[in-house]
Amino acid sequence: MKKILIIGLGLIGGSIALGIKRTHPEHQIIGYDKKDVQNLAKTLGIIDESIPRLEQIQEIDVIILAAPIDVTLEILGQLSQLKLKKDVIITDTGSTKSRVMERAIKVFHDKNVKFIGGHPMAGSHKSGILASDVNLFENAYYVLTEENAELQEILSGLHAKFIILNPEEHDKITGQVSHFPHILASSLVQQSDDYSKEHPLVKNLAAGGFRDMTRIAEADSTMWTAVLLSNPEPILNRIKDFKTQLDEISEKISLKDEKAIKSFFDTGKKIRQGMEIHKGAIPNFYDLFISVPDEKGVILRVLALLQDISITNIKINEENREDIHGQLQISFKTEKDLVRAREIIEFATDFKVA
Ligand SMILES: NC(=O)C1=CN([C@@H]2O[C@H](COP(=O)(O)OP(=O)(O)OC[C@H]3O[C@@H](n4cnc5c(N)ncnc54)[C@H](O)[C@@H]3O)[C@@H](O)[C@H]2O)C=CC1
Ligand SMILES: O=C(O)C(=O)Cc1ccc(O)cc1
Fold first, then answer.
1. What CATH number does domain 168-279 carry, 3.40.309.10, 3.10.180.10, 1.10.3660.10, 3.90.180.10?
2. Which residues are listed as membrane-spanning (predicted)?
3. How many CA within 13 A on the CB side of residue 87?
């Protein structure tokens, strides 16, 4: 039995706790967060115990930091002042790694601490303990700054794929494919909002493409502020590069260069189709969108048709125009389930699916 302390019991801390317990029910999970969050986590059975303050942790074998990056940086300093168990393993989950590693090396250099930077490459725009999910990291990459058999075994119940990366490379990559997209998503909704003042129908006509591009604009602002402030160089570099990309496509449009515009879209399509996200490496987003008529019992009918398939989430996307069908968004764990569900709905109904 190991004693594992999780600091920050939100989406990531809660999901990691559930994942550890799945394979290692013998480990004791101790949580530290605000009092009400700790109480909720305990009531939900996500943690076994909590501690009122960050002290008397000399019995703890593994400490997992799952708080926003700025808080993580501060807590590393606090931990270094405390009496810790000899050879304690400390890891974090922050979305950026260079600043965290610099701080950890600085504060623990003369201590018997094994610090391993970590970043599970899955999550959601949702936050907080209530959003935790034992399957959140299923098949997702989990970046570690170095191999550590003990830590990887403790986290084996997350069913993630560990990958070793140095902090600088990690921050450049995630700057491109995670941090920068969050900036784009938020910019896009704000640009649309400004434009809707002149053109009020903008918000009504936003369709699936807009929704897919902007889901992450709903992510937590505290967390993302800390992410951007801890990875400024790579992100500013990506913004600069993107401005050039926009200038290039602007030029093609101005020149009415049909061939170049078509090639622009063909290239993007081909690249995306070759990416792992397209092959189903990223969990949680096997979504089927079904246009259903506004009729009594229609949702139950769809669910009855899909009763043999494991559904992870159901959302009813309300439409505000009476003449249009509502959209049922059903999420599946695997691409196979999604394909089967689509076949069943298409065979048994005349509802449009996408
Ligand atoms: N949200 C996501 O999709 C992902 C987030 N991450 C990283 O994981 C970390 C946690 O993110 P989430 O779980 O999404 O955030 P969250 O907002 O769901 O949870 C953070 C928790 O930390 C707690 N907290 C804040 N200050 C604290 C303090 N001084 N002491 C103890 N607890 C404190 C908050 O009360 C909250 O419960 C962040 O560093 C983030 O960059 C990593 C992968 C995915
Ligand atoms: O919501 C999404 O799709 C995400 O992109 C989740 C996410 C957020 C932050 C990370 O550091 C890693 C993954």
1. 1.10.3660.10
2. none
3. 3
The CATH homologous superfamily for domain 3-165 is NAD(P)-binding Rossmann-like Domain (3.40.50.720)
As beta bridge partners, residue 332 has 286, 311
Look at residues 47, 95, 53, 97 and name the one whose alpha carbon lies nearest to residue 75.
53
Of 101 and 300, more confident: 101
pLDDT by residue (tens digit) across 230-269? 999 999 999 999 999 999 999 999 999 999 999 999 999 9
Rounded distance between C-alpha atoms, residue 92 and residue 120, angstroms: 10
As a residue count, the chain comes to: 354
Q: Whose CA is nearest to atom 8 of ligand 2?
A: 123
* Domain residue ranges of the chain, discontinuous segments joined by +: 3-165, 168-279, 286-353
Encode pLDDT of 122-173 as tens digits: 998 889 999 999 999 999 999 999 999 999 999 999 999 999 999 999 999 9
What does DSSP say about strands 141-144 and 118-120: parallel, antiparallel, or unpaired?
Answer: antiparallel
Average per-residue pLDDT in the chain? 93
Whole-number Å distance between alpha carbons of 326 and 317: 6
Please, which pLDDT band fits residue 323 given cuts at 50, 70 and 90? very low
Is 68's C-beta closer than 6 angstroms to any atom of ligand 1?
yes
Query: Does 178 sit in the ligand 2 pocket, CB within 6 Å?
Result: yes
What's the 230 CA to ligand 1 centre distance in angstroms? 15
- CB 150, CB 181: distance < 8 Å: no
